[in-house]
Amino acid sequence: MAFDDWGVSVGSSARLRRSETLAGAPGSWARTLGILAIFTFLLAGLTTVVAPGAHAAPADEGEWTAIADDVATQLNDARDAAANGDTETALDLVKKARYELFAGKGLEEQIASQISGADASKADMDFGLLAQAIKKGETADVEKYVETLTTQLSQDAAELDGGGVAADDMKISPGKWGQTATTMIGLLDQALETYNGGDPQGGKDLVNEAYYGHYETTGFEKMTMARVSGGRVATVELEFALIKKAMNEGKDDEVATRIAELKPYLIEDANTLDGFDGTGEGKVAPASGWTIFFASLMVILREGIEAMLVVAAVIAYLVKAGHKDKTKVVWAGAAAAIVISILLAIAIKQLTGLAGKSQELIEGITALVAVAMLVYVSNWMLGKSDAAAWDKFIKDKTDTSLSRGSLLSLAFVAFLAVVREGAETILFYQPILAMADDDTSMVWLGLGLGLVILVIVYALIRILSLRIPLRPFFLATSLLLALMALTFTGSGIGELQEADVISVTPIEGFPTIDLLGIYPQVENLTAQALVLALMIALFIFGYRRQRRAREAQ
After folding, report:
1. Whole-angstrom Cα distance, residue 120 to residue 117?
2. pTM of the prediction?
3. Nearest alpha-carbon partner for 115 in 144, 77, 145, 155
4. Contact 462, 14 (CB under 8 A)
5. Closest Cα partner for 96 from 88, 117, 85, 114?
6. What CA–CA distances, in Å, run from 448 to 300, 442, 451?
7. 240-286 tens-digit pLDDT
8. Which of 175, 250, 472, 492 could cross-link with 368 by S-S, CB 3.0 to 4.6 Å?
9. Quick count: other Cβ atoms within 10 Å of Cβ 338?
10. What's the per-residue H, E or C state across 48-97?
């Protein structure tokens, strides 16, 4: 089979000309935009589930605390009614607290979107368990659930109102993650003392020890990302960075304030990871099988979706352009990335020198190299969406094939997309397997289901690509890869910030959308704006070049 310079088979020229008639139809463009919308909403939807945005200020001072206090009043009255044997009144009070106040007043929604979906789900579950305990007349359990709910909602409401609870007033889990958080808090206290003693560098070193030596290497970060949210991890990482920045700038008050703000986050996340109910009885509920399952599922979806979208788009392009036989080169690039990822994960796990800053540096550089390749390939595909350009090359070149350089570029894009996520995915599963102890079946079940979902995503892209005329398909694919480039830019800059290579300048009130690489920092958003400007400029340049070519014919 013969091919033109752009890699389209001569046999497909008739199909191309027929598709160009359809490509100009409004319905075709609507389908194109629809496919792009599916890709975008797929990412945004996952982000909504696992990566809540930045904390929003309440409409009125103390608004959420007032609602939490009203909930507490209703629950305390329900407890007293249950103790007096008035089950019906107790249940009515719990129902009012749950549906009219917690849900009806928006506190549940705010906790889920601004703090943690896990917190909102746990509170809702505790309301149900409290009602069951009242029906069964289990006084001790009624007391426990009332205390647990009032404590959690009070803390979450205070955080929503911009206040929060001091770390010294919080109960911390005696479990594994609670111990890790206690160690980090101790290091942060030492860092503050060292800094106040006139040794800023010593203070920064202790902050780095807390972050690199415990938050990252123990799996605390990865488990928080899997079981709480990516947004929470981004918030904590930003606080670590801002503490060091304040130390560099000699801002004594800010150093103390930010350390005080960071410690409650660590305690809250440790309690969530350990399943600690906050009663202070020294008991840690073991992680349930479903908790482990969802942690495993979210890791593979979170880390795999970006790589799958890129690989699927590249494969779909080759098939659509008549190069199905050359897809093996792209799959080889992805396979090589998996092998490299395994070796890199082993090296990071075994060699402490590769952990911490070095790991962040490797991930950041890889992401930015991937950005360069994605911009190149996106622009390259975009150049193929012009009908006249296609027809010209089909007529003039009837015996050429996809160039070696272009094919290797596509394979390299797949390689970078997979290797960027691969090693980190493997490292994410280390703490999940440790949490599962000897019963790892739910870990593998979550991983297996996640892989099935990724295969379905790949199949959908392949199926949908067959339904789209060639020209709109190339446009949609190009825009998808451009979106991936913006995502990789934000996360790549974030990795370099964690490695202390790039400074951090926060933007108050700006949302965090972790899966799209959007963070409330000037450096990340500036880099994304520059990449976006570059892609727009390349698009305009290519469009004008194609128009001049058409006019010259």
Report:
1. 5
2. 0.58
3. 155
4. no
5. 88
6. 9, 10, 5
7. 999 999 999 999 999 999 999 899 989 988 988 887 866 555 455 55
8. 492
9. 17
10. HHHCCCCCCCCCCCCHHHHHHHHHHHHHHHHHHHHHCCCHHHHHHHHHHH
